[in-house]
Amino acid sequence: MKLFNKAFLAACAMCLSAAIAVAQPATYPDNLPKDYLSQEFHAGRRQALRNLMPANSVAVIFSYPERVFSKDVNYVYHQNPDMYYFSGYKEADAMLLIFKENQGTGDSTYNEVLFVRKRDAGQEQWTGRRLGVEGAKTRLGFKRVYNGEDFAKFPLDFKKFSTVIYDEMPDAIGSDEGLAQLVKTFKAKVNVPEVDKGLMADLTLISQRAMPANLTRLMAYIKPRLDGDAYKSNTLIQELVNKPDSATLMDVKAKIKLAYGATGAFATYTTALRGIKTPEELALIGKAVQISSLAHAEVMRAIKPTSGEQELEGIFMYIHKKYGAEDEGYPPIVGAGANGCILHYEENNVPKVDNQLVLMDVGTEYHGYSADVTRTVPATGKFTENQKAIYQLVYDAQEEVFKLCKQGVKYASLEQKTVEVLTAGLIKLGIIKDAKELRTYYPHGVSHHMGLDVHDKGEYGGNLQEGMVITVEPGIYIPAGSPCDKKWWNIGVRIEDDVVIGKDKCTNLSADAPRKWQDVEKMAAEKSIFDGK
Length: 533
Fold this sequence. Notes:
Layout: H1 6-22, H2 39-52, E1 57-62, E2 68-70, E3 73-74, H3 81-87, E4 95-103, E5 110-116, H4 121-127, H5 132-140, E6 145-147, E7 163-166, H6 178-190, H7 197-209, H8 215-222, H9 229-232, H10 235-242, H11 246-259, H12 261-274, H13 279-302, H14 309-322, E8 327-328, E9 333-336, E10 357-361, E11 364-366, E12 369-370, E13 374-378, H15 385-402, H16 411-429, E14 469-472, E15 475-478, E16 491-494, E17 497-501, E18 506-508, H17 517-524
Parallel strand pairs: 1-7, 5-6
Antiparallel strand pairs: 1-4, 2-3, 4-5, 8-11, 9-10, 10-13, 11-12, 14-17, 15-16, 17-18
Helix pairs in contact: 2-3, 7-11, 10-11, 11-12, 13-14, 13-17, 15-16
């Protein structure tokens, strides 16, 4: 085999050098959308966090890691919503420090520091522009910005703070660069205790969302995890398992905050802030929901028995992109017939939906904020009498819950009203005999907060507050084999809308997607832009 000669290798080296010389840091374009969150918004959120933090404390927030999609190609990057909320920074390999009090003396004082991904002209030519230090200063409004690699030698002694507040550590891959190095260095400087990530996530879930009203569902969620060593050895989990009542739950919630103070405090503060949306946020959420609602309406027009689940998903995605949405808020759910009875069905691969109901839970993401809209539509354009009966029951439950969606109402009352209406309706239809059977057909809750996460941070244990954005999503699912008359089998119905809580009533952001069965049928009779000639 002939080897490459020295002349050939020299020529390759010259080409490589020329390529490196040509690759210059790219400038950020100015022709981007003008309705992103402003510098002032992010700065205001940082100050709001300081106002909640205790004296002599520092909050630490990391970016999310990147993940490989296929060999050397990554998934489209999605920033840690908390990092984005407090900084506006959208790239990986970053760390934000927010101090309660000013640090340093004289003209060099500061109360926040951002560490960012270093600029690299060669990498930017392949994977896109980076803000870098100067970009973060000019575009995000930070005064103190450094490259991530500078954190190891940054002159800051964390031991001087009474409280270091941080979320659970991101699962960064690697050991010598980027996010992995930031996390490793931080853990060493603060002496962060190692806690099983799954256990920590569940302890946070219990601390933030568990209530007496959902204790039964919580225990059903925890039970399959109890064989894990981390769960067996955790006294708080075992305390709740051994005595799963309301008093024990509240005691365990308090103990979680004491035992895991750093992450518990972070969750408490960020939940309080992100649960109430500002006018800037409401504008972006409103845009996301409006785009999603237009897409649902168009799919109602386009759906036919010959449509495929994936084809319908494609219509949603086209409409979303057409009106400027960057991504989907979550994997789209397009389930025909039996698939509509699977709560998080995501395959969407049935080639013909036939003469069935199609449950479509699809919401877009616009500038980081997610919609969450569900409609259930007959592929024929007409509901059968049995389908109509279930649909009307779900609609009635949603209407009753809407009446409660106003400031001062207990969040738990939304679920109580849903259970009341659905139970009475299913008993009347002969599908169940008493309330104990309801969860067979209604296995989820009626509402959750939404925003930067589709299941966003927000308070569930108290009262609704003006500025909250929540879903209202009752549903009934009757898979084949259910203990009821076969005429109901494979009927799955969910109607989900996104509402803003006001002082005296709520505003339904997703009203552009028809909800009444009569209006759904009317929309289905209209011509779609996808019908062709």
